[in-house]
Amino acid sequence: MKCPSFAHAITRRRQSPSLQLNQYTWQRRVIPDCENAKTNIDTYEIDYTKLYGRGGSFLITPLEHGSVFSREQFTEEHKMFQQTAKEFAENRILPKREELNILNKELSLEIFREMGELGFLGVDVLEEYGGLALDKTTSCIIVDALSSGRNASILVTATAHSGIGMLPIIWYGNEFQKKKYLPKLGSGEWMSCYALTESGAGSDALSGACTAKLNDEGTHYLLNGTKIFVTNGGWADVSVTFASVNGKYTGFILDKECDGWVVGEEEKKMGIKGSSTVTFFFEDCKVPIENVLGKVGEGGPIAFNVLYVGRFKLGVSTAGGAKYVIDAALDYANDREQFNRSIKNFGMIQRKFANMVTRVWEGDTINYMITGSIDHTLANVDKSAKNYFEIVQKTIEDHGIEASISKVVGSEALAYVVDEGLQIF
């Protein structure tokens, strides 16, 4: 029996001058005849337990060696926050959900501040700045539980604030910026937003046309340009935004008092109509130099790294919302009768429910698999260390594959469940 003419083996090398690779290169070796050729192959024993907590490890870890965190492993503290958030959603948001489905600034801000008082907005903020500094599982449990209020608008308002609106300051802000902004943002006294997208720069954010130029006095940057689709923008006191400084993409923190920050009209949207979405116009917008976020030229990593959290939190909120679509469809199926029996007893309807539940279960499982893995890695990290948030950011970035999967699976599950739920009606 002849072997293939060529066999490929991966050889680990520190450097490969020809291909400029640092990790692996392909080595081609001719093996003319298996009977006449002897090949020494090194084997390696992998301790898969050491891979737990590493992003993407599920791709190479055999099922029998894998470890997955799930809601069945919630601690008593997790369950306490879950119950508190669920009670708030059912007692405060649910009775007002119809009023929150239209643009209602006064009511939205009222409920938003109550969330801050309960600590829901400051989960990722260190205690010294008025936050709770809890794990990522708790952060997602709160979002999941708030879904029981059956209102997407207020949930978008809160998560856009506590996620992409605050995390850039939490992770990259200096001491002055953290002390100035985080206590009021975490308490809900102030609302934040994240202004990244431009009309000609969506996924390709670095191609944005917004510019920032240092004034002659050297005291302020003058921002010029436009940002679109800014969630919370019409109600925000603070905005994290980005502009090019002599070709270097840079992050900035804007205060409501900044001259030249013009807020456009509210967008007329097809859904999530109760949240604020506007366009920003920067017309020589004066931003103090102390409001540069990170260093000049660091805007790219700041802009993109916080989006990982936004992805898996979107996965949580969409999967969470889908559960209540199933509940509504089941209530209807219980009450609706055809041919002298409830329609829930028909095989076609039962199949719909089985598929709906499966889709949502997949999303829910992925969400807590991610947070459990991240929390495992961060469990023994000293929160008082100067590089603590650098470690947090790197750990979350390491789970970029999982975060993207969470967003896709959760949002597609919601779309599927809504479609099937409507068909049951």
Which structural traits does this protein have?
425 residues; alpha+beta; four-stranded antiparallel beta sheet; 11 helices; 12 strands; 17% strand; globular
Helix content: 40-55%
**β-strand number:** 12
Structural class: alpha+beta
Strand content: 15-25%
Major sheet strand order: 3-6-7-10
Show unreliable segments: 1-31
User: Which sequence of SSEs, written as H and E, runs from N to C?
Assistant: EEHHHHHHHEEEEEEEEHEEHHH
- Rg from alpha-carbon coordinates: 25 Å
Helix run count? 11
Instruction: Report mean pLDDT, rounded to a whole number.
Output: 90
The rounded distance between the terminal residues' Cα atoms is 63 Å
The geometry reads as: globular
Largest sheet: 4 strands, mixed
